[in-house]
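User: Please predict the structure of the protein below. I'd like the answer in structure-token form so I can feed it into my own downstream comparison script.

Assistant: Understood. Taking the following sequence of 178 residues as input:
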Amino acid sequence: DKQLEMYEKMELPVAQVLFEMERNGVQIDRAELARQSAELGAELMKLEQEAYAAAGQPFNLNSPKQLQEILFDKMGIPTKNPAKGGISTNEAVLEQLAPDYPLPKIILQNRSLAKLKSTYTDKLPEMISPKDGRVHTTYAQAVAITGRLASNNPNLQNIPIRTAEGRRVRRAFTAPQG
């Protein structure tokens, strides 16, 4: 039977490799992540000030309601995407507006950096095992429809690569000599 053969010759050997990878863990440079977290924090503060200047007033950058009021009521920016309770300030809407208006571009940058900081540079150091100084994720070989591996607790497969900041986070993943 083909399924049994695939299971015995492919799935089981890969499962053993994944078990070893989970047990060995991933070495992460805690000091590098701390540096990056501090730099991201400073950049987020700078973006916050830029957003206040672009809006003409301070506001909570994480409040969709306040952002909606500033963009569409105060600044009168037109949009084609009305939503329940007003106009959406989701990523798709902000991306449409960013080429023509500075504030949506600043908000998108802020959201991107805040996610990197909270998800990776702040969180990964907390997940380093005191026993061996490594992060131990769980790999799943049969959950993704695409056939690729999935990683969780923590999810190491979604570290951004399209931005310079995301690529920097990847530099904190290190390997011992040899």
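That's the full token string. The chain has a mean pLDDT of 91.
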